[in-house]
Design goal:
Layout: E1 6-10, H1 15-26, E2 30-35, E3 50-54, H2 60-67, E4 72-75, H3 90-109, E5 114-118, H4 132-145, E6 150-156, E7 159-160, H5 167-176, E8 179-183, E9 188-189, E10 192-193, H6 194-205, E11 215-219, E12 225-226, H7 227-237, E13 243-247, H8 249-261, H9 270-275, H10 296-308, H11 310-319
Parallel strand pairs: 1-2, 1-4, 2-3, 4-5, 5-6, 6-11, 7-10, 8-13
Antiparallel strand pairs: 9-12
């Protein structure tokens, strides 16, 4: 297989995408990041080998042009919410199922073989999966595996990092709510650091022995937490100690329904509650062979304190001989 130099990163301007672009740029790879709005992706231009192309990835002609000339593709496209539907809603179908099919077809037309596809942990635990999100991710995986591409599929647990929307959300809520009713309080997660996800993607693209081709790997951290434990950790790092009250899933779905009625992306949807019916931890899957996975208990409190706990920042400034 030829050495990979040019990589198209779908979803490169997002939380995980930014870390992936940083990692690929450090390795000297030339990166192309498509985006609908140029301003929303400008932050990735801090990487000298990265270029932004304004394009609609769901337009077949535009997708063909994006794939042309690339040596590999990284597909990070994913959404957390969609309207209802059988077996999943339209937004899940468009992004998780139809897009991977279209992407692999464009790769075949442009004679591009290599793809690293980011899926989700929990696929295959139950059939059918309990949520639209997981069902659509399952069908997206199948589309990639049925293609002629040299694929690797990575299945991360919930991904944490400085700008994540998971732990930071709970830290924000703890600042506002001294009491937190929590559905899925005992659901288990095995969070993985965003930097480790990026390292795994790079390792796949630079795999000279081709060991990762046509393989599926789990990406999980070294620690398992219940959702309640993650909420407590986030809250404590933000300087709060809310009372967490576990509630049945049907109550959680009622709460989520009210959140769905609010404008913008909901903090929680009914489908999110359904996803938590199965634990988001590694079972029989093959773990991606990184030398080391970063523990959430060490990294997460540091960045949450830095963002939400001003008293901690004051002490930090004093120790650095600066004035706040």
């Amino acid at each position: 297989m030829n050495t990979i130099k040019n990589v198209l990163v779908i979803g490169g301007s997002g939380f995980i995408g930014e870390a992936v672009c940083n990692q690929l740029a450090k390795a000297g790879l030339k990166i192309t990041v498509p985006t609908r709005r140029y301003d929303s992706a400008k932050h990735v231009l801090t990487n000298p080998t990265c270029q932004i192309v304004q394009a609609d990835i769901h337009d077949r002609a535009a997708l063909n042009r994006l794939v042309d000339g690339q040596d590999a593709v990284v597909n990070l496209l994913g959404v957390l919410h969609s309207s209802g539907g059988k077996p999943y809603g339209k937004r899940f179908k468009l992004n998780h199922v139809e897009f991977p099919k279209a992407l692999c077809a464009a790769m075949a037309r442009q004679h591009v073989k290599r793809i690293v596809h980011i899926s989700a942990l929990g696929i295959g635990v139950e059939n059918p999966a309990p949520s639209m999100y997981l069902r659509s991710k399952t069908d997206g995986e199948a589309a990639v595996k049925d293609s002629a591409a040299h694929w690797t599929i990575l299945r991360p647990s919930v991904v944490f990092g400085r700008n994540d929307s998971f732990l930071n959300m709970f830290a924000k809520l703890s600042k506002l709510a001294p009491v937190m009713p929590l559905a899925g309080a005992y659901a288990k997660f095995q969070p993985v650091f965003v930097g480790d996800v990026a390292k795994a993607v790079l390792a796949c693209l630079t795999d000279k022995n081709r060991d990762t081709i046509h393989s599926t790997f789990d990406l999980v951290g070294p620690e398992v937490f219940t959702l309640a434990e993650l909420v407590k950790l986030s809250a404590h790092a933000a300087g709060k100690n809310p009372l967490i009250i576990p509630v049945p899933n049907f109550v959680g779905k009622c709460q989520a329904f009210m959140m769905e009625l609010a404008p913008g992306e909901p903090l929680m949807s009914r489908d999110n509650v359904d996803s938590m019916k199965i634990d988001n931890v590694r079972t029989a899957g093959k773990l991606f062979p990184l030398e080391h996975y970063e523990p959430l208990s060490v990294l997460a409190p540091e960045y949450i304190r830095a963002r939400y706990n001003s008293s901690w920042l004051d002490e930090f400034r004093k120790s650095a001989h600066r004035r706040g």
